[in-house]
Design brief:
The chain has helices at 35-40, 63-83, 90-98, 111-124, 127-140, 143-151, 154-166, 170-180, 183-194, 199-214, 220-249, 255-258, 269-279, 292-299, 303-316, 320-326, 339-343, 345-354, 359-367, 372-381, 385-395, 398-412, 418-429. With 445 residues, it is mainly α. It has a domain at 69-181. Helix 3 (90-98) crosses helix 4. The protein is elongated, with a radius of gyration of 39 Å.
Length: 445
């Protein structure tokens, strides 16, 4: 007949663990069993009838398992010593959470004790304490009581929401935001989640966010922003499908072979517009998905941003006719200015110069600069010495001529620069030009 069950473990290595039992009136809060304790209790299932008899362990614990058990007992004793009582106060429990120790939060049974526990967690400024207490209250309290406590403590709400978002607990995050009535924050959380889902379902997720914002009139701006994001993604998917097939069949002399393309799905607006201006610059029908002008009008792209992308793309493909047209074509917002003037003639000329544009095109752009000083600096930067001399004569500034002389010698050499230096000396020595005196020094070089 099996012997009666005894709470004391078999003699051996466990004897030292129970050498000093706690006092009779002490209450011990046991933590969940560790992995070492679980392994030490392995073996066959309890054998016996209703008398509750159990079988002995299959094998004695190893020295490592015994050491782990001793450490666990020591941790429990420290827990009781730090708490100072069998029923610790909320402050003591929060102190354990801050220190990274396990805490028996279930000892706070009343609603008042739970509120004090949350207050202590907020006062500690510890994210671990706030998250631990909130996770406990979600389970321990009814929904209305939990929301009532959280609404009165916005600091705890923000930390807990941030924890839910960083740990990707999206359903709990959205449910809590909905219960709190934070419509804008819930919609933005839905938008961020839709941007992270797989691409095959991202468009559907964005349309769901659009439908959510449409239910609230005060969030019209957010609805239009998400709708534009969904429309942009839809167009990018269609254009990507068409262009990838065209690039696979293209020859080496085509634009696809000269400049290999990249995937435009999820590309930002500026990159998308520049892509269209580079690979589809001559699609003038605004109703087509790949029309640069149509996409600019649909998504209300800023004029300077669009013209800058047009300049960069035209210079890369060396479409000089289009860039020459930009010097005379009026802008679609500033009707009194040409497109090149909207960007800035000096910047326009610099991009042309860096991409080896024809000299006539660079000269036309530089001579269109209205300010004499700016035009002179541009001419000197692009080695347009004849135009620089003309700008210096118009400004009647002898220091400009000195700058040209030094730059010509450094660029062309003493022998090649002799004719231009002779012309500069003749202009400075003749009385045809009334040169100004007392001009600034070192401004133009």
């Amino acid at each position: 007949m099996d012997s009666a069950w005894s709470p004391r473990p078999p003699s051996g290595v466990f004897d030292s663990l129970f050498a000093a039992p706690p006092a009779a009136d002490a209450q011990i809060v046991f933590a969940p069993p560790s992995e070492a304790r679980k392994r030490s209790r392995g073996g066959p299932a309890p054998a016996g009838g209703d008398n509750g008899a159990t079988a002995a362990p299959s094998a004695p614990p190893t020295s490592a398992e015994a050491a782990a058990l001793r450490g666990e007992v020591a941790a429990l004793k420290r827990l009781l010593a730090d708490a100072g009582a069998a029923d610790p106060s909320p402050r003591a429990l929060v102190a354990l959470l801050v220190a990274g120790e396990p805490a028996a939060l279930y000892l706070c049974k009343s609603l008042q004790a739970k509120a004090a526990l949350l207050d202590e967690a907020q006062r500690s400024c510890s994210r671990e304490a706030v998250v631990g207490v909130c996770d406990f209250l979600v389970v321990a309290l009814a929904g209305r009581h939990f929301l009532e406590l959280m609404r009165r403590r916005p600091g705890c709400v923000r930390q807990y929401l941030r924890h839910l978002e960083q740990t990707r607990q999206t359903p709990r995050l959205l449910r809590l935001l909905a219960d709190l009535g934070w419509v804008l924050q819930e919609g933005m959380a839905r938008w961020r989640h839709a941007a992270e889902v797989p691409l095959r379902v991202r468009l559907v997720a964005l349309l769901d966010v659009v439908a959510f914002f449409a239910q609230h009139e005060e969030l019209e701006w957010q609805r239009r922003a998400v709708a534009d994001s969904a429309a942009l993604l839809e167009r990018q998917l269609s254009i990507e499908n068409f262009d990838s097939q065209a690039a696979a069949k293209a020859k080496e002399t085509d634009i696809w072979g000269i400049a290999p393309r990249f995937c435009i799905v999820r590309a930002p607006m500026g990159t998308f517009i520049e892509y269209l201006l580079f690979y589809h610059p001559h699609v003038t029908d605004s109703k087509k998905l790949s029309s640069p002008e149509g996409n600019r009008a649909m998504f209300d792209v800023d004029q300077r941003r669009y013209l800058w992308a047009k300049l960069i793309s035209g210079a890369r493909v060396q479409d000089w006719d289009m860039l020459l047209e930009m010097q005379t074509r009026k802008g679609f917002i500033f009707k009194s200015k040409a497109e090149a003037e909207v960007i800035g003639q000096s910047v326009f000329a610099e991009i042309l110069y860096l991409h080896d544009a024809p000299l006539e095109l660079v000269v036309n752009c530089v001579t269109a600069i209205e300010a004499d000083d700016e035009r002179f600096v541009a001419c000197l930067s692009f080695c347009l010495f004849d135009q620089a001399v003309a700008a210096a004569v118009k400004a009647r500034n002898p220091l400009m001529m000195s700058d040209i002389r030094s730059r010509v010698v450094a660029t062309l050499g003493a022998e090649a620069s002799m004719p231009l230096r002779t012309e500069i000396d003749d202009l400075l020595g003749s009385g045809k030009v009334k040169w100004r005196k007392n001009v600034a020094i070192g401004v133009y070089s």
